[in-house]
């Protein structure tokens, strides 16, 4: 009779020594850790990326005074808080390497603040001089920028935070309130570290905080601008959302974890070394400190992030469930490669040790990893921010230089078709953008009048005035509605 399989061990500090052999776990005593970082927007990516780099340092006996306190400003963050506190803020990371799956428990996070409407607990934590870095992942569209890239000072949440600086609604308002407390107490400011996929993310974070502070306290705004620091960075690791399938993977490894994280077998973190209150030596465990962050950012955002949009919108329309499925498709994969080689890579400079062509080969392998169940829905989420931030800057540069734009125009037409809200098999695409209602209404109009889509100036600005782009977009959207996505993609692939 076969021996009964051991029941999964419920993850906690008390059960670490009961975990199955082969599961890496913290070699440091959590009692020795003290906090140095508050991270806002604590989701899967942070736990697989920044928290992992810090954990690796702690495994070497380093950075024990840089432990992470988690935080959130949305009601949904409270669920993550409850789950993590129940397991002592430990996380199971599951690496999905096609050659073999492995598990590791990360312990660099030591607490999760209560999620409150007025953000009082968050403000108090960031006011503590022990906190020297406040980092955040709030998505590309979460920085309250208008169509020109400036702070959207008319947004109701920004208006509220300017009028009520002691009881802010936003993460940025809470950061400004904490910096005000530190200034009044004679403490140095913390460094603000964006970990979002924005080119110049530190610069954008500075703009947001200084602009917000200027609305209520100009002296504080000038103090932040002069004494705080906001390092730019590039972050990269494919981290799918967690659902029951991911929890089953953890159980298969012998761990009961309510919120495990699966990730690919690749990480990259390129950081500008500009921290006003010091920082962990992340470069000891694989991060890169450099003055040339912009070049790394441009390569990653233009080729990987824009490339994701090339794939995901077509995949959603065709009912392809994952990015790996898109890469296995005999038409979508060649479409992706042609757009990259002809229309994206020519606008990307090489970085030390990596040409755009080699980087394309790298992300092609990563996207095709069959173990990574990264859904097209997740990648297509918030297209109004992702197209504006990832695809349209390439398009503008191509138009300015007279370079090809047909595939980029087709990418935009596919997004417009996706926002109609139905797949080609008739199934419904659920709301997948903060602007979904308006996008869907406009997509309906654009079915008969394609130019209506480009008149969304909050996304496209003046791009509708570029005749070559407008004509290409209108032709592709009409072609998609008349003959289907595959016919349009086939036509593009066969273009000379």
UniProtKB/TrEMBL annotation:
Signal sequence bounds: none
InterPro entries per record: 6-PGluconate_DH-like_C_sf, 6PGD_dom2, Mannitol_DH, Mannitol_DH/Oxidoreductase, Mannitol_DH_C, Mannitol_DH_N, NAD(P)-bd_dom_sf
Keywords assigned by UniProt, alphabetized: Oxidoreductase
Mannitol dehydrogenase N-terminal domain sequence ranges: 36-283
Domain Mannitol dehydrogenase C-terminal, first and last residues per copy: 293-481
Domain of life the protein comes from: Bacteria
Protein name as it appears in the record: Mannitol 2-dehydrogenase
Organism: Marivita lacus
Organism placement in taxonomy: Bacteria, Pseudomonadati, Pseudomonadota, Alphaproteobacteria, Rhodobacterales
